Amino acid sequence: MKNGVLFPEFSEALKEAYVDVAIKQIRGDKREPNDEGIFLITGVAKEDVCSIRTIADAVQFAKEVQEASPLATVLMAWHTDQQFSGPYGVLRDLEFESPDSSAHHAMTFSDLVSKYCAGSSPKQLLDELLASGSVVSVGNGIYRAVTRSYVPSNPLSQQNIQLFARLVHNVSESAEVNLRSSSVGGNGLMERTVYTEHGISKDELKAFDKFIRPRVQSFVDDIDNWISERDKPGRLEVVKTGIGVYHFIVNDDEDSDLSKRLSN
User: How do the domains of the chain map onto residue ranges?
Assistant: First the structure.
């Protein structure tokens, strides 16, 4: 509601998600999905199922959630690929493209995009990274990465919405896995939460934010470096995995209402 998303729009998106997941489950059972079967699994009306399935590219929810942002991919590669860093892992400033057409020119931002996001426009990616403050110009057509993470400049951009969807999906997926009987006895996924019991002052909240940011960033960088050394194309029987760290502030009204509902 805060972002102007009305219930009919949310409802339609949710129907598409249910239909998408049902189709994947049916195909996973080596069966061909049909409107009746999808209706029985999801409860989505058959006429809605038919409409969703016949609209071109309508069922793309899960694909969009899982697709990595090319902007985040470029930044990650800039920080981890030794071709784009100098001695001791210090990042190199990159030209947008080399005036030298020989095969032995220094690696450029365009080379970075070509290697990790083939098919994407280097100019458009650079413009967005500049707008978000993730990259700055140091003059003479040379650019410097100043952050390791990409934060879209437009709060309701497609990239931001996909990041939000991926976050909610991954947190919910981990929690659901740990609710399974097979996860009993420490066989589930790592899940740790630190929180206040009585609360801290608003001034201390600012100090807490300042306290956790560098520590979390250092921790995440270490994990990213470990993964990047092993996350190579062409490997067989791979598992896509990672970690997520987030700072939450409890809404007292919503938390109280949730506690009441759970106690009933």
Answer: 7-64, 70-145, 158-263
